[in-house]
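User: I'll paste a sequence; please echo it back and then give the predicted structure.

Assistant: Echoing your sequence first, then the prediction.
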Amino acid sequence: MNIGDGPPTSPEQSFYEAVGGHDTFVRIVDTFYAGVADDPLLRPMYPETDLTGAKHRLVMFLEQFWGGPTTYSEERGHPRLRMRHQPFHINPDARDHWLSHMRVAVETSGLSPIHTVTLMDYLERSAHSLINTFEPTPPTEGN
């Protein structure tokens, strides 16, 4: 399975449905971006003053990946995660910061243990695959 293709689903219920659908993914993404907003390494990667657009895109992506609405592809085309993240300086430090905020978001979302493990497994593999440099993070303006 390629990252971005989505997990296998049963004919009875998708992962998206099993975890509570849209509201669950919004809760995870909102918690995640609350951490990103104050993260000095990650926040500069988001040029928007307001993170609303980034939140919307991540919710759509996660929903589609896990068997929910296909709004992401309808609005943005194929996810192409590596291509979309290539312009950003994603080194192991950035990956670790990203995973730290995502881990908090998933672990506080109220998912069952099996769903937590399943989601974090995917997110960890995805984060590792998006590393595109091993160069140190460049200093931000004012530092």
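The helical segments are 15-18, 22-37, 52-65, 71-76, 81-85, 92-107, 113-129. The mean pLDDT is 89.
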